[in-house]
Design goal:
By secondary structure, the protein is an all-alpha fold. The chain is built from 14 helices and 4 strands. It has a two-stranded antiparallel sheet with strand order 1-2. A two-stranded antiparallel sheet has the order 3-4. α9 packs antiparallel against α10.
Length: about 375
């Protein structure tokens, strides 16, 4: 029966920062200090970005998604610091860290949907899709064509991204359980006898579908997204995903070749530590990039009172909108499977607002958004009338 090699050595370094009254600095502790300092700096930059949006929370439907995205660098930095500090439990921290990627990608899709709804012709969100002609799918499926006005298209597009917020956390939970029982073997060779190969395959398919859905939606609505810097916003997320993936691959490839085991650390420990340290450093720059890409200047209203921070913070961690969007898509697919006429008829107009959940007030209704009402500036709940 195949056995998975242990990531950790039995020997444990018993020394501390202080030894015989002097600082005991080695490479590991220097890295520990750098990782901690960068994590703190990332958190501080992100706090500034988050508070700016919280105090100018004049478009809740867009800004709640922005807040979720702005949490990505500090989440990655703090968890990477702990995975460096407690390197023997690195796999658990890493599985928790990547789960937030699903939240960020889903929030980005919902943010793009809000952008389209706000910038559509005559502020009629339905027209943003109805005037689109039949067109080929992006590479590698460019041989097939699709019609955006089909009833099932927008629900399928939304589900292609939102499915990741289900599968990625599920893969992480399964990975944690498998690691606990010693059958994950994430750092070992790929083998059909361990869970890692199956979980990574599921994750690869899921994120590939999610990213393809985002590219498809961007290509379909890029005219409506002009002026909102969608590419910069997307790259600030995607580059984090790419950097963390490829550098982890590189460090793993160097194990046993360039990276050698020491008295207290295996080659895997060192490779994982280098990856975590690199992430902590990178997140400082990504936090600054997101502050620029998701600027609060788009939401400032001259003369308006500052809003309370508590409702924005609650909105950003209240994922009921995700549940609603997922539930709405599943209901549509259930109706489609049982042959409901409204889901099959191409003669029936597609309701963009219903499919994407972008109903409600628009700036054309008078006061742009509930939180621009002075009565809501210090309120935990908006006054809607």
């Amino acid at each position: 029966m195949a056995t998975c090699p242990s990531d950790n050595l039995t020997a444990v370094d018993q020394s501390s920062f202080w030894s015989s009254g002097n600082l005991n600095w080695d490479e590991h502790r220097i890295g520990w200090a750098i990782a901690g300092g960068c994590a703190v700096l990332t958190v501080l930059i992100s706090i500034v970005s988050v508070l700016q949006h919280c105090r100018n929370y004049n478009n809740p439907r867009e800004q709640r998604q922005i807040l979720r995205i702005l949490y990505m660098p500090p989440v990655y930095a703090v968890i990477s610091f702990f995975s460096y500090r407690y390197f023997r439990s690195y796999t658990y921290y890493e599985l928790i860290e990547v789960a937030y990627e699903a939240v960020t990608l889903s929030a980005f899709l919902l943010l793009l949907i809000e952008f389209v709804a706000a910038t559509a012709v005559d502020r009629d969100a339905t027209k943003a899709i109805e005037r689109k002609d039949k067109r080929p799918l992006p590479i590698p499926f460019c041989c097939w064509r699709y019609r955006p006005t089909k009833p099932y298209f927008m629900y399928t597009l939304k589900w292609s991204v939102l499915q990741y917020v289900i599968f990625r956390p599920a893969v992480s939970i399964a990975g944690i359980i498998c690691q606990l029982y010693g059958v994950l073997c994430e750092s070992g060779p790929y083998s059909i006898y361990f869970a890692s190969v199956y979980l990574e395959a599921i994750d690869f398919v899921s994120i590939s579908v999610a990213l393809y859905g985002l590219f498809l939606f961007y290509g379909l609505t890029k005219e409506e997204l002009e002026g909102r810097r969608p590419l910069a916003k997307f790259l600030s997320i995607k580059l984090i995903v790419m950097f963390t993936f490829y550098q982890s691959f590189i460090f793993s490839a160097l194990e046993g070749r360039v990276i050698k085991a020491t008295q207290y650390w295996t080659a895997t420990n060192i490779a994982d530590g280098l990856n975590a340290l690199t992430i902590c450093i990178e997140m400082v720059f990504f936090a600054a990039l997101m502050m620029w890409a998701y600027t609060v200047n788009e939401y400032k209203i001259p003369g308006a009172r500052k809003t309370s921070i508590w409702r924005p913070l609650w909105d950003s961690i209240n994922y009921w909108d995700f549940i609603t969007e997922i539930g709405g898509s599943l209901k549509f697919f259930f109706d489609y499977a049982r042959g409901a006429p409204s889901t099959h008829s191409s003669s029936q107009k597609v309701d963009f607002a219903q499919a994407f959940g972008v109903g409600g007030r628009s700036p054309a209704d008078g006061a742009p958004y509930p939180y621009s009402d002075a009565r809501n500036a210090d309120s935990s709940s908006p006054i809607l009338s």
